[in-house]
From TrEMBL:
SMART domains per the UniProt record, alphabetical: CoA_binding
Cross-referenced SUPFAM superfamilies: NAD(P)-binding Rossmann-fold domains
PANTHER family: COA-BINDING DOMAIN-CONTAINING PROTEIN, CYTOPLASMIC PROTEIN-RELATED
Protein name: CoA-binding protein
CoA-binding domain span: 17-113
InterPro entries from the UniProt entry: CoA-bd, NAD(P)-bd_dom_sf
Stretches that traverse the bilayer: none
One Pfam family hit: CoA_binding_2
Amino acid sequence: MAVSFAMGQDSAELEQILRETRTVAVVGASDNPARPSNEVYQYLAKFSHFELYPVNPKISDIDGQPVYPSLADLPIVPDMVDVFRRYDDLPAVLAETLALNPRPKYLWLQQGLRHEEVGAAAQAAGLHVVMDRCLKVDYARLIGR
């Protein structure tokens, strides 16, 4: 079930991804309430069924939840890597994702992020890729509230 890179991905495919996902690494999570990554993290922590693992080398916790400096430092391999990073950082995030063993199932690039080369490389490595979509918005629309 490879997801296309189009912005209007099929709702049934997105819903299946969301229902199958149990653990999510939020790369670029922030403790700053003004940042979109914090808003998404807070919503998912409160309303989703996901076990969340925030990743950011510059902070140590978000509301008492430990924040990990890198994907390699996580205590588990997440089902999904949800990315809030700049476009230029995406190849490095993909390399870190692909270094995990076993590999995550899903790479989700948040709204505003599209990187065709990263998407193609992730898909070629067996990951299902979602680009330019907000995990919070899709979760609320398809699963939650």
